Amino acid sequence: xxxxxxxxxxxxxxxxxxxxxxxxxxxxxxxxxxxxxxxxxxxxxxxxxxxxxxxxxxxxxxxxxxxxxxxxxxxxxxxxxxxxxxxxxxxxxxxxxxxxxxxxxxxxxxxxxxxxxxxxxxxxxxxxxxxxxxxxxxxxxxxxxxxxxxxxxxxxxxxxxxxxxxxxxxxxxxxxxxxxxxxxxxxxxxxxxxxxxxxxxxxxxxxxxxxxxxxxxxxxxxxxxxxxxxxxxxxxxxxx
Length: 240
Hints:
It is a single chain. The chain is an alpha/beta fold. It has helices at about 45-55, 70-80, 100-125, 130-135, 140-150, 155-165, 170-175, 195-200, 220, 225-240, and strands spanning about 1-10, 30, 60-65, 85-90, 180-185, 210. The chain has a 6-stranded parallel β-sheet with strand order 2-1-3-4-5-6, with helices on both faces. Helix 2 links the parallel strand 3 and strand 4.
């Protein structure tokens, strides 16, 4: 069966996040990057997964790369369509459920978006995705991303926040699935604890963890060469 790479974007961004990474490097298979930033009708990760899968070719195996929320969707796709999924890369993502504190923060985010809209939200949100050093050294990158995403529909961000808040942990699935998972995690990621990935990879010998030094929640921006190398090595090992 032929194979494709499916890149799934995170919260507060859209498919264009991959335009800053994918074209720079060589990939073993064709790459597709669905855009669901504006979707209002998905109530949970399973519904995102099913809707995205409808548009993917069924005659090809899928290598999924999910950044942050995209990782949650990749996980849901692997659960719903295990026969199609060849591998999963969790890029700055987790298989753990939200903590109670995180759920409260999701509620605050939804309330903020409802009252003030995306533009007011994205400005302070984007810098938090990166390490402090990267923000200080790359102000034009931060400004560009804020300008790019400030027009995302608040309704889509609210729906995504709810789906993220309500998702459950998937430790049992990770322990039993034959699908290999690679966790790529920035040492400076302030949004997803490194311990989450460490715990997940201990559940099965087929799962792997690559730590990216001095990178935050956007490792593909902060250390793109390391991230690309990790992904290629993983996909090639699975492909063989």
